[in-house]
Here is the input.
Amino acid sequence: MVRKKKDEMDIKIKIALISAIGVIIGALVSSPFFNSLYEDRPVIDISLGGLDTDLPFLELPKDDTGHYLQFVSRNRGDTDGKIVVTVQGENAQIRGNSNLDWTYERSVNFIIFPDPEPKTTSFYILPDENSEMFSITLTITDQNDKQYFQQINSISPTIVTYEKTETGYAYVRK
Here is the structure.
């Protein structure tokens, strides 16, 4: 009989401890500290086109180094955003600058500083020699040490397809 009372007491103590921990966590979450973390969070927009339009380059641009595309990003929040940008080519290889090797997939860590003005980042494209068409896909993920409430918005297009023409490559609408 004594054993039953001790078990009941243990259960009551456990329930009381769990309730106390819940109250403490609830108080912390509704505290000004957490509210400021949420209000000051990074809000990152990113796209292969413009951020206010869904049109990428209609003709794939080219400079002295070769064909290139740009992704556009901005941080409408109040703290630095930390993201990983992955650019993947289908029938095309990619590199960020002339010091890197060509590859079908490239991932780069970025810190996007708070600024409502869009910033562009270029990467070079080498279409496969015998391919008449290629696609580029942009994906964005959080870095491990990002701000807790960070928000990422992928704005269309995040996938673009170009078709070979007599003079270069033209954007294919899907």
Q: What stands out?
A: The chain has a mean pLDDT of 84. The first helix runs from residue 2 to 29. Residues 58 and 171 are 5 Å apart (CA to CA). The helical segments are 2-29, 32-39.
